Structure formats: structure tokens, C-alpha cells
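Q: For a teaching session next week I want to show students how multiple molecules come together into a single three-dimensional assembly. I've collected the sequence lines for a complex. Could you give me the predicted C-alpha cells for the whole thing so I can convert them for display?
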Amino acid sequence: MPTAVETVEVLRAEDLVRTYQVGSVLRRSHVSAVDGVSLSLHRGEVLGVVGESGCGKSTLARMLVGLERPDAGRLLYRDTDVTAGHREDRKRLRDGVQMIFQDPYASLDPRMTVLDIVAEPLAANGSGTRSSRRDKVAELLSLVGLAPDMMARYAHQFSGGQRQRIGIARALALDPDVLICDEPVSALDVSVQAQVVNLLADLRKRLGVAIVFIAHDLSVVRHLADRVAVMYLGRIAEIGDTASIYDNPANPYTQALLSAVPSPDRGARGGVSRRRVLTGEPPSPIDPPSGCRFNPRCWLAQDRCHTEVPDLRVVGSTSRRAACHFAESALSGS
Amino acid sequence: MDTLVRPALRVRGLSVTFPVSGVDIPAVRHVDLDVPRGELVALLGESGSGKSVTARAVMGLAGEGAQVSADELTLGDVDLNSASARTLRELRGARMSLVLQDALSALNPVLTIGDQLGELFRIHQGASKKVARSRAADLLGQVGIPAPAKRIDDYPHQFSGGMRQRILIAMAIALEPELLIADEPTTALDVTVQAQILDLLGSLRTQLDMGVLLITHDLAVVSEVADRLAVMYAGRVVEAGDADTVLSRPSHPYTEALLRSVPRIEHHGGDLFTIPGSPPNPARVPSGCPFHPRCHRAIDLCSSVRPELLATADGRTVACHRSEEVLDAHSR
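A: Of course. Below is the structure for the complete assembly, covering every listed component.
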């Protein structure tokens, strides 16, 4: 449960849309990567975003940090519209929203020392002198659990977990309000993942930084997130507080997804073979189905689902919202 | 464990070393492993633990320069240790086969699926092109690919990731081998597809009475499907036994710590148990017990004397000076 989630809204997305064109000029097709995603993020809050590959979670992340411009919709950072991506918009967004990447081996320049890597956002921002930046880097490194005297070393001298800590220190250099983490632990060894997960939880508590945690590992998201958004083919299928989503999913897709997660508890063995089996072709964001995009694979689908796009609406007594015409029957059937 | 009636694979004292700039780096050290027919044995370990090298060495595919030695290496009744390269080549595919993680690079992009599957029947069994093609279509159906007759002329890129993994499995089981080694077969897949592949491996194992050696780093997958389990760390098996026994009451601190450090879908919040540091580089394995610098139960003895892998009363083997204490902690 969120302990001290304050009500200051730091980041807000309204109906973000991103479409790519693929194929030749003669046979043009459209990849609808993100289609009408709205969400808001409050100070100190962890929002988990889950979904399968191709559901648009990484495209969403890139739009939230301004690496990708939405085709439609608005992005607001602390009530300022930064959608247009003008010079000052980008600067404002960079000061407040930073990204942590999946692959700690590819996201650090092998020819730069740790000092240069972590100080780069500060230098680019023109803040402080060389020596004050050095002090700040030392402070950041100890914040993420690395010894400050390691700052003269190069990235290759560190293990995967340590590199991810360096990436986190770099993201924190400008004291951002929001960290966007795109699969931050999936490239790490199992025995190292817990260290980084704990670090992120600790940073949220100590610095009040809000975190968008994107992952395909549903157990990690459950552990860390206050709220969860489940995405399917570019749209939010269900969003709400973590406990409601995991304990009582109201969207058929969420139910199927959660039932396929294996448990490390031996007592729960066999859960996966008793899962809700999805029929039909696996989803592709190229020319997605009309109406509810989940309809070809859904066991509750009726005619209405083929034509009418379901709204995200409140289902049950909680603050959870689900995009399904038959969420009530899904909820009672689960 | 010698009472097992029908072993598909029996490995005793397997070691693999790779020469790297004049120095021999041991990747696998004295590994013992049994895979009975009809059972699924998981080999659990992190990167660099030697789990994939073990699998490749069994298949005779350890690579150039690798020095493989074993006291005993048998596939059913065949001694792989003394087998010639030619014999090994005939055995691969027919009696033992390997499924790799990256299905796209394991398939030939310029040949149709039908050609690649049919090749197995043509080369190993001398089947005609027509027969090979129809048997390939049957196989595709068996691994759950819809409309196999239509898809047999498609190329690998026309299939999704999960479908490609099914095709690899189809190739691996084509000649009904007694041993299937699957090296991280679901790591690149989404959970819903992973569940389908695990189901498929499970049902094929029963249908064909194969022994399956599943190599993975994912504890949840192991817990879901494994009958037996061997945990590897720094090139050695540190704990092995019946999966129920090992997972419910681990007796090695590494197994214990791994089980405690994974987040569970039923739980939220709080700090996760962490293992400090990271897995050792095979070239610089710590003295004594290789896990001692990261172990929460280490004593002085652990840094100097390496614990032998010993059998315990409940039928498992464990290499730890303090396994009794670990067991006690879990029976309370």
C-alpha cells in the first residue's frame, strides 16, 4: 500500500497516440504502437506498466521522457504542456523526467569514466564547477550504494548490477521528480535483481521520486508498484491499485495474463497448467482488430466487442478502471 | 540415485575447461547428473555457472579448444565418452537433441520450415521428399501449430517467437529422442507463450517417454515443471535432489537465498532478501567454498576448505559445511 503518496501531480499523459508506418510505399501498413493512453503520476508514487511484447509499453516510456513525439494527445509535466517538444519543453522535461534503460552494458559509454558518465547531465545543464560536480557525483554514488572512490574507473570494470546502479546515479543527477525505468532488472542475474529492486524502493522512500516501472515480470511489479497499468496492443486494458488488479482482475486479458505467471512456491505447482488459455493468433500491433483489440482471443466477446471500443470505466467499488464491456461478468466469473 | 531404472542420461565427474590466452579456465568442474526417462530435470544457475556448457558438453558440442573429460557419460546404453565424432553426429537429433533459446538464429532463414524439418527424416531415415514433407506437417500439428499443411512452405520470419520455439521443439522431437536438452527455451518469451511452451514440453515428455533436461535461471519455471533439480554455482553442482524436497526445504545457503530473493506474485512491499555481490568470473573463483564471500551463513572454515558434495538422509546431495543449520532454519 502507498504509505506517503502525496497528491502533487508531476506527470500527466492525455490520450497519447503514436503510430508508425511500415512496409513499402505500395503496401503501406500501420503499426498502432500506442493508441489513446492517459495516465497521471503523483509524487513518490510507483506506477507499474505491464504487458506482453508489442503492447506499446516501451513506446509509451519513450514518449514520457520526450525521446519520442506523440502523434496526438498531450503530455504535461507539473501542469506545463510539453507535448510540442520545443527547446524549452525538452529542457524542462529533462530536468524533471529521467530514464533508466534495460541493458546496463549498452547504456554506458565504454570510453568514459564513471565520473564523466554521472556528471554528464550536470555538465550539459551547465550547473556547478568541475569540483562541485565531482562532489555531487560522489554523493550520488554513495546514494546508490557504490563507493565514491570508484569514480575514476570505466564501465567495463563493473558487474551488471553495479552498472545498473551507475545508470541510476546518472538518472538522479538532476534531482528529477520522475524516473522512467524500462525493464531495469531483466538483464541482470537473478541473485542481483533483488539488490536493484530494493534500491529503487529505497530511493522512492528517501527522495520522494515517482517511478514508472515497466516490466514483463509481473511478480516484480506487484512487489514494487502502488498502482498498475496493464496494456494490450497499445491501449490500457486495466489500471488501478496493485492489490485490486492482482487479486481481482476485471479485464479478461488481465485474468489470462496473471494466470500464466508461474510461482516460485512449490505448493502452487500446476497453477500454470490450470491457467486461462488464450486462443487465436498472438497479438500484432500491425493493423490491430477493430472494436476491443482483445476480442479475437476473448472468451466473453460478443458482437458489440467487434465494433465498439470499450471505455476505461470504474468497475466494482475500488478506484480501479477496466476497458471491457463485460467487466462485471469477468469479475464475477474469476 | 543408482536405483533409477531407466536413465536417459548419466553423467559422472564431467569437467570442461577452456584455454584463454594460455591459461586453462575451468567452466564446469566434476558435475554429476542423472536424467531418467519420462522425467524433467532442471539445471538451475546464473550466467557463468556452467549450466549451458554442461549441456553442450553432453551433446559433444562444447566447441573448439574445449577440453572435456568425464568419468562416465552415457546416453541410455551408449557410452558417449568413447564415441567417435561420427557416432555422436548420428546420435544427435536421433537419440538426443537440443533446443536453444534464440529460435530465430537457430533456424535457417532461407529454407522453408518444411525443408528444415523434412531434412531430419531424409538424412537420418533416408525418407523420400514426399514422405519427409508429410511427416514434417504431422510434426507441426503435434506441437500445436494451426493449419500445418498450409504453413509448411513458410519461412522462419513468417512465424511469431512462440511459434518458432515450437518449430525448434518439433525438430528436436522429430526422431523421438530419449533425451531432450532445452537451454533457456522460454527466456525470450512472454508469460502467456512461456506457459504454452512449458505445457508442450510436459505433454511431449509423457507421450514420447523422453528425459528432459531443462536449463534455466528462472526459479518459478523450475518450481512449476521440474521433477528433479540440480543447482549450479561457479561450475559445480551445489545442491541436487527431488524438486519437492529441495524447493520446500533448501539445504544450501545459495538455494535458500535464491528462493528468498525472488518477489512473489502473492506479496507486495517490504525489502527483498538480497545476496550481496555478483556471481564470480570463472577465471577468478574464490578459494574454499566458491559462494562464501556472498553467503549469509559463512564461517571461517568456508573460506579455506571447499565442502564436498555429499548425500544426505533425505536423498539429496549438497555441498555446504553448514547444510544442517540451513535445514534446521527451514524445519522450524
